[in-house]
Amino acid sequence: MEITANTLAAAITGSGSNHHGAPPFAPDWARPPKNGQHLEGLSRSYIYRLIESKAVKSMSLTTPGAKKGVRLISVSSLRSWLADQAAAQETSAS
Fold this sequence. Notes:
94 residues; alpha+beta; 2 domains; two-stranded antiparallel ribbon; 5 strands; 39% helix; elongated; disordered N terminus
């Protein structure tokens, strides 16, 4: 399979499907949502509070000499935190 800019972008963003007809790739790392948008139903500010409290894994990718980087959030750690919250609510409701 020839790798082009389009196939590489589809693999990174999770759009499209692979050549075996399997479901699209779901990335584990995502950028925080923009203001007014949500990730897994949570706002940008709420996600940053989770990052600050160390409830969710994140990292900042920077290049040497750069003033700013790109913040990425571990989607699997966010989903794990949400599952823990749901389990805690089920336990307290019982």
